[in-house]
Specification:
TIM Barrel, disordered N terminus, binds 2-acetamido-2-deoxy-beta-D-glucopyranose, binds zinc ion, NodB homology domain-containing protein, CE4, signal, Glyco_hydro/deAcase_b/a-brl, hydrolase activity, acting on carbon-nitrogen (but not peptide) bonds
């Protein structure tokens, strides 16, 4: 699969097809399709003093206004696109055909596809091992451990979490803090509480109806999920395109976006279960919904000062908010791909022959279940309690794959040679950024700053690992 910058937004959308949720027919279980409103039932009201809670002390109060007293017109309009659930191979093959997809039931996420996703510049986040509500700590750690071991994502780059079914408790959030996560993104923001991301030092300012607002978790960020109210005012959260005709959905989404854009410039989110936009025999053709979503994304992307970012990029900006005119100078917002002149197993087409990691990935087979990885296959099938069973190939023998160390990033790690191909600051990168709109310059040459638009189309995937179809049907 090629990632072509010339298809910036097509690429984004086709990525919807590679992450996969096997429960689209089980509407009752849909993750947070619409959200409850009402506030502070059973919780004290949110109280946070911005004079003492400051970003320099890893604290930020919930607010509808931009951080650092930035004026809205100087503030970037960030948009995050997130994809939930597992990653399956039949979907990636047809990503560029958008809808020509065959249904395959596989138990595990395909780890080499996750690695491709990450290496292309997107973020990978934790969504538990077996996709359960109110997850235990081992559900959270097993997912992270497997993403590290089989997709080669450095532990420090797996910073985010979303609870399956958006079902979390204070114990979930306390676990995240204890396990060293940077943020949660499971809370719902109806327009009344559409706050910028904030830390949980002084409680949660969203989801108070669930009685969770009294928590105090210093330094853990919440990136609320921003709802789109439908025609009757009901907030729709994930898969808004499932709630009405493409025309209606586009109208609601545009109105919700404009509220942020013309208001406090709070980030706007598009939360997708790719399976809903994927064609399956016997189900209605999702193409009109997909087309509607693409045209909505194009319409907001063509507005000035709109940037599509990952949650991690958003938080980097929150910690050091700069004016939109300075965004293109921020290193963490650059679209860079490493230049490596031989094919290594890193999720990229390093030698430019149109194939990614050819003849380098391992096929791990466990009866009905298979997955590909650049790393060692486990000797037995992973389980919740033993997510990374020992490999039968030993260190130092032929075929052994070396695990990624925390001081090398995935794109540069050669697991066969046990080498990090970037160990200094002069590593070669190529810039893959392109301006989207003709009304402004993108990040690439930065020749003009009066009309800046996003050149960034990065997004975050929340990955649950063992979402077999049987779990949902
Ligand atoms: C779908 O994919 C199959 C197998 O790759 C191919 O034979 C078929 O022509 C494709 N159909 C469309 C509509 O592209
Ligand atoms: C949350 O998940 C737990 C564990 O799966 C379940 O018992 C509970 O009913 C769920 N709560 C909601 C509100 O769905
Ligand atoms: C592999 O073996 C070498 C030599 O015994 C050792 O230094 C190294 O730490 C081992 N690496 C792993 C990943 O086990
Ligand atoms: Zn999910």
């Amino acid at each position: 699969m090629r990632i072509s910058p010339h298809h910036l937004f097509t690429t984004e959308i086709t990525f919807t097809l590679i992450l996969f949720l096997l429960k689209d027919t089980v509407i009752a279980q849909q993750e947070g399709a619409s959200v409850s409103s009402g506030s502070n039932v059973g919780g004290k009201s949110y109280n946070c003093d911005p004079n003492t809670c400051q970003v320099s002390k890893d604290c930020l109060c919930a607010s509808k206004n931009p951080p650092n007293n930035l004026l809205p017109q100087d503030t970037p309009q960030f948009v995050t696109i997130t994809f939930d659930d597992s990653v399956q191979p039949t979907l990636i093959e047809t990503a560029y055909d958008l809808l020509n997809v065959t249904f395959a039931s596989m138990q595990y996420t395909d780890f080499s596809l996750v690695q491709e996703w990450y290496s292309a510049g997107h973020e990978v986040a934790d969504h538990t091992f077996t996709h359960v509500g109110n997850p235990s700590e081992s559900e959270i750690t097993s997912c992270r451990t497997m993403l590290n071991s089989y997709s080669g994502i450095p532990n420090g780059k797996i910073q985010g979490f979303r609870a399956p079914f958006l079902n979390f408790t204070s114990s979930t959030l306390n676990s995240l803090k204890k396990l060293g996560f940077t943020y949660d993104s499971s809370a719902s923001a109806i327009p009344d509480d559409a706050y910028w991301p904030y830390t949980l030092d002084h409680g949660m300012a969203n989801n108070c109806w669930s009685g969770i607002c009294d928590i105090q978790i210093p330094g853990l960020w919440e990136i609320p999920m921003y709802a789109v109210p439908d025609a009757t005012g009901i907030p729709q959260l994930m898969d808004v395109y499932m709630a009405g005709s493409p025309e209606d959905v586009s109208k609601w989404s545009t109105a919700a976006f404009d509220n942020h854009y013309n208001g406090g410039r709070q980030p706007f989110g598009i939360y997708i279960h790719p399976t809903h936009l994927t064609a399956y025999p016997g189900l209605p053709d999702p193409k009109p919904k997909l087309d509607g979503l693409i045209s909505f994304i194009k319409s907001i992307a063509s507005k000035q000062d709109v940037w599509f970012v990952t949650n991690q990029q958003l938080l980097q900006w929150m910690k050091n908010p700069v004016k939109v005119s300075e965004l293109k100078d921020q290193d963490y917002l650059k679209c860079q791909q490493p230049v490596i002149n031989k094919e290594i197993c890193n999720g990229l087409d390093d030698n430019g022959n149109g194939q990614i990691d050819e003849e380098l990935t391992n096929n791990c087979n466990f009866g009905a279940t298979t997955f590909k990885t650049c790393f060692n296959c486990p000797g037995t099938a992973p389980t919740l309690d033993n997510p990374t069973p020992a490999s039968s190939v030993q260190n130092g023998t032929a075929g052994y794959r070396y695990p990624i160390p925390d001081n090398c990033d995935t794109q540069w790690w050669d697991p066969v040679q046990n080498t990090c191909l970037c160990t200094s600051s002069d590593c070669q990168y190529k810039d893959t950024a392109l301006p989207f709109s003709t009304t402004g310059s993108g990040g690439k040459d930065g020749s003009e700053s009066s009309a800046s638009v996003s050149s960034i189309a990065q997004s975050t995937a929340y990955i649950a690992l063992a979402t077999s179809m049987y779990a949902w049907l």
